[in-house]
Design goal:
Strand content: 15-25%
Strand order of the largest sheet: 23-24-25-26-27-28-29-30
Radius of gyration: 30 Å
Helix content: 25-40%
Distance between the termini: 83 Å
Low-confidence stretches: 130-138, 801-811
Number of strands: 30
Mean pLDDT: 90
Structural class: alpha/beta
Largest sheet: 8 strands, parallel, barrel
């Protein structure tokens, strides 16, 4: 039902932004357009912008507002706070006209009648200029929770009216040159979801760091949702891959359990909400089940699809959800277009920040936001009154930030917080402002000394680091339009899943070598056999540490989940392009350094050419560990639906051994050819070249590992510094071997690539490979632009065309 001053959500659509503001227009759109499709949205009503204007007009408030704000310098923090307080006080002392109040009461009674009860309420502000492309700072006005009864509802609406003039809202409108008296406010009224008894959070339908569009990012924590947005807690995080989610798969490609130290819950008596600590056993658990994460992600995709259809162009979304602890139902409580990445055109360039020298040990670490580096003096701010001491170029250090701080954040070099996750206020605003930011550090406000010089680096992957002193750094920027196309496939060598989304934006043909050793070392940290045999370990110290790491999770599942999510993130970033994942290729001394590894590894005089690669996989001493690797890769392909994943066997000495490994993989569910599975082998031992015909009858392709091939052709241990000067991939004997491998693959009709360093460093080496008709060259991302230029020049110089050269070679 609609009258001039209130309107029920079922009668609201997105076209009503001018009437009820962006937030309420979106809630109405969700209710009538997407609830029938299964998206759970709450009933409610909104007061209209006309109601607010009537309130202002009847109390002659426009003159008061203009007098206080017309000549305000928003960079004067103290004056902004003083004048904002005067405007809010004037609004709160002005009475709501009787006819408005009666309309509000009537709408409340209608809502209670539809629900069949008098509910606790969530009362949210919705300004007529928020959630728009040119005015994106939603959340500038207030939300009130746990409101019970009509009289308290009227007070909450009155407080919402006043919150249109919070300090942050005044500052934001001034920066956009909006007339402070021409903005109106609508108030949304809904039953409050009892998430204080369960959990709540935020969803983005893209990766908030890289802008990668094919994922849903879900964050969650216990209790009411304000603490996540404010950054008071470090929440749980999940990443879900959209394309295969739409196919009915279960593609959770990453997750992180947050610390979730406190939660906001419903208060008693007149106190609307209160904070309480979360018990330790709950903190160590995720706040949602996998099924709930997937349900929310599917809803997010439906919402994004609907808004994309309305907009006529891709429209990533920023969504809030809540779980009712009484009914265990999930609800969408807010949805609006995402504004940071959506306002940016697809960047036609790649920009990377890098410290010039090896940095010292960091003094503080946390979650990185922003992919940049900032340098400045530490300014610790513990309360709003200290914001006036923050100078341009300072590094703002705080427990958390809130929207009132936004004017000051515009002038700092970086932001560091003790708490919060990637959807906290500090992270969102830093991203929008292009600032390096590190959240969830835990102790930054006590460790970092006031006035000291620091370097804040968010450019080293998922972990952000704060270093003492002003460190030199450089910025590399390469225009994609300057990258020439090539017939030879140019792929990446990649190890860090956290870099995958960012790197995938660079022109590429997929991943030629994804090394899982990085994932095992940095994300798992435990020897696979120690998990396969747990708890039957001889080392009590290792047993205790592993038990603490895995918690309630089964040991094998801990390994499979962690490895599958790391590999899955890389495969998702490049989907549907091929991603070739090499099974583990640690040496025995490296395996032994993993937690619990010492009792499973022999001591070898020369691990470089010892028990490594294929020889481990069918050996009883490692067979169970390899089974865990296979289970993880199978999960990526089957459960996540990432069938672009191919598997590569390293250091395979004989064709007989290759057959054993292929059979072992099949026994563990990775059957060659099933669901399109291709199995490659590294070509890095002279036997792989001399008997290439035998190997290529078994495997689906080759990738030349030029580092190992060089050391074995020349008889050089590349770990030995004594004779390292003799290591040379350009040696004629090495090049003869490489040429022979390429020719043999062409004869067999199998693809062959190379994943060594030589093509990155030596233009003539890349040109030579092209002349032999190699199918792909896999490089480290930082050398791709340079190498593509060499490759294109080499292809242009070839006559006849490169495609006619296949099969030509010394062997």
């Amino acid at each position: 039902m609609t009258n001039r001053y209130t309107i029920d959500f079922e009668d609201i659509s997105l076209s009503d932004i001018g009437l009820v503001g962006g937030k309420n227009a979106s809630l109405g759109e969700l209710l009538h357009a997407l609830k029938p499709a299964g998206v759970n949205v709450l009933d409610g009503f909104a007061t209209t912008a006309d109601a607010f204007r009537r309130f202002v007009r009847e109390n002659d408030l426009e003159k008061t507002i203009r007098n206080h704000l017309s000549d305000l310098d928003i960079n004067d923090t103290a004056e902004l706070q003083r004048r904002g307080a005067k405007v809010r006080s004037a609004i709160l002392h002005a009475p709501i006209p009787v006819d408005l109040e009666e309309d509000f009461r009537l709408a409340y009674r209608r809502l209670c009648s539809r629900l069949g009860r008098e509910p606790r309420l969530a009362v949210r502000s919705s300004a007529t200029a928020e959630d728009l492309p040119e005015a994106s700072f939603a959340g500038a006005a207030e939300t009130f929770l746990n409101v019970l009864g009509c009289n308290d509802l009227l007070k909450a609406i009155h407080n919402c009216f006043a919150s249109l003039y919070t300090d942050r809202a005044i500052s934001y409108r001034a920066q956009l040159d909006f007339d402070q008296t021409k903005i109106a406010l609508s108030v949304g009224v809904q039953p409050m979801v009892r998430s204080d008894l369960a959990s709540s959070g935020v969803i983005f339908t893209l990766d908030t760091e890289s802008g990668f569009r094919d994922v849903v990012e879900v964050t969650g924590s216990y209790g009411l949702g304000e603490f996540i947005v404010q950054g008071v807690v470090t929440p749980d995080e999940w990443m879900v891959f959209k394309p295969t989610l739409r196919e009915g798969r279960r593609p959770i490609i990453s997750r992180r359990c947050g610390t979730k130290e406190v939660r906001l819950v419903r208060g008693d008596g007149t106190k609307t909400t209160r904070s309480e600590p979360v018990p330790a056993n709950e903190r160590s658990r995720f706040s949602l089940t996998d099924d709930e994460v997937l349900t929310l992600s599917r809803w997010a995709c439906l919402i994004e699809d609907h808004y994309t259809e309305l907009a006529g162009h891709p429209q990533p979304m920023d969504i809030e959800w809540a779980k009712d602890g009484l009914t265990n139902e999930l609800f969408i409580v807010q949805a609006r277009p995402e504004t940071v990445h959506s306002r940016k055109a697809q960047q036609p360039f790649y920009e990377s920040y890098k410290l010039k020298n090896k940095p010292p040990r960091p003094v503080v670490t946390g979650q990185a936001v922003g992919d940049r580096i900032g340098v400045g003096k530490v300014r610790v701010v513990r309360e709003s009154s200290e914001l006036s001491f923050v100078e341009p170029g300072d590094v703002l250090v705080a427990t958390s930030t809130n929207p009132d701080w936004e004017p000051v954040m515009k002038r700092v070099a970086a932001v560091v917080t003790d708490s919060g996750g990637r959807t906290a206020h500090a992270a969102i605003v830093s991203r929008e402002l292009g600032l390096p930011c590190i959240v969830g550090c835990g102790n930054a406000t006590t460790i970092l000394a006031e006035g000291s010089d620091v370097t804040v680096s968010a450019a080293e992957g998922a972990i952000g680091r704060v270093y003492e002193g002003k460190l030199d750094f450089e910025v590399h920027r390469v225009d994609f339009s300057a990258v020439p196309p090539t017939q030879t496939e140019v792929m990446f060598n990649l190890a860090d899943p956290e870099k995958a989304f960012e790197v995938s934006a660079i022109p590429n043909d997929g991943v030629g070598l994804a090394r899982i050793e990085f994932i095992i070392t940095n994300h798992i940290g435990v020897h696979p056999m120690a998990l396969a045999k747990f708890p039957n370990l001889s080392d009590p110290r290792a047993r205790t540490k592993i038990a603490a790491m895995i918690g309630e999770e089964a040991p094998g599942e801990f390994f499979v989940r962690k490895l599958s999510e790391g590999v899955g993130r890389i495969a998702a970033a490049f989907y549907p392009k091929p991603v070739i994942v090499r099974t583990s290729d640690f040496k025995t001394n490296e395996y032994a350094k993993l937690l619990g590894g010492a009792e499973f590894e022999p001591e070898e005089e020369n691990p470089m050419i010892g028990w490594r690669g294929a020889s481990r996989y069918y050996d009883e001493r490692y067979k169970a560990g390899f089974a865990l690797e296979c289970a993880a890769l199978k999960r990526v392909r089957d459960d996540m639906g990432l069938t672009n994943l191919k598997v590569m066997i390293p250091f395979c000495r004989t064709a007989k051994e290759a057959r054993k490994v292929v059979d072992e993989m099949a026994a563990n569910g990775l059957k060659q050819g099933e669901n399109g599975l291709e199995i490659y082998a590294m070509c890095e031992i002279p036997a792989n070249v001399v008997r290439a015909h035998d190997f290529l009858e078994i495997v689906d392709g080759y990738s030349i590992g030029s580092n190992d091939l060089t050391q074995l052709v020349l008889g050089i241990d590349r770990d030995s510094a004594t004779i390292s000067g003799l290591f040379d991939e350009d040696d004629p004997a090495v090049k003869d071997m490489i040429a022979g491998a390429i020719a043999a693959a062409h004869v067999a009709g199998k693809p062959i690539g190379i994943c060594g360093q030589a093509p990155s460093d030596k233009p003539e080496f890349a040109a030579w490979l092209v002349s032999l008709g190699i199918d792909s060259i896999s490089l480290n991302p930082d050398s791709v632009f340079r190498a593509r230029k060499y490759i294109a020049e080499a292809e242009a110089s070839l006559a006849p065309p490169k495609s006619l050269l296949k099969g030509v070679g010394k062997w």
